[in-house]
Amino acid sequence: MTVLINGVVTEAEAGASLADVLAAHGVPERGVAVAMSGEVVPRASWASTPLRDGVVLEVLTAVQGG
Amino acid sequence: MGGAIAATGILDDPLLIGGREIGSRLIMGTGGAANLAVLERALVASGTALTTVAMRRLDAGGGPGVLALLERLGIEALPNTAGCRTAAEAVLTARLAREALGTDLVKLEVVADDRTLLPDPIELLDAAEQLVDDGFTVLPYTNDDPVLASKLADAGCAAVMPLGSPIGTGLGIRNPHNIEMIVAAMADRPVPVVLDAGIGTASEAAQAMELGCDAVLLATAVTRATDPEAMARAMRLAVEAGRLARGAGRIPRRFWAQASSPTAE
What is the ipTM, given to two decimal places? Predict the structure, then answer.
């Protein structure tokens, strides 16, 4: 299946969890937050969150600003 | 002697936002600094205890490491919702910031357009109400409008942060009387007034405090100054000077001169 991570189409294995895909994408465990289809997924739920084909993920972190 | 004690007293009186003590009345932003080394020297010189960061896509660049820097300096991060145009976008960004940084503090920004970056008051109030309901400590960046400031305070915001002039303009405080009216409107509430945006130089930060603001938030005036470290120190001293002057009670303005030496009679 494919998932969209920050606008980039990414291949993922069928049955992969959110945690699997984020780890494969090199997303660090600290200082980031993930929204799936516009809803925040708490870090504690990443491993138990299944993905469906075509799902839209946004991965955010803090940068200089304001 | 008594005067000196009174003078230190007002400077020791801590800034309280949502019941938490903030160790400095100068809140800094991290935007606009040429690099992290420049930013670090400016933050240290400013004496700030609370500093804004923005939330962006992980791979969008823009300086990873700002969080590590704040952690190392012992400065609390204040995530903002910069770039959001609607209440829905701002609420999602605030929730992502809470998850990423583990803080319920949020500098709520909902701007109307890119040219003015002025707050959209209707979306702002809507977002503030939703975030207060969701347990956030909400610090809204707002217009210099006493009516809107009161409505934000009524909604449960922990502070109100009126602009002096549009973000990044360095035009100072364009409507000092409105700022004074906001200060007066908040006088009976535990809601500090933070002058946010538009400060260009130290005298304007001092003026904000003389008008009765509880704190000043600025970024560009320091980070884009020719010497950010020196300007950060100037801002720190200006905020202290303005607060002391406010507490000291300025003389009334007079139309005609009044001799300060004894008159010959």
Answer: 0.90
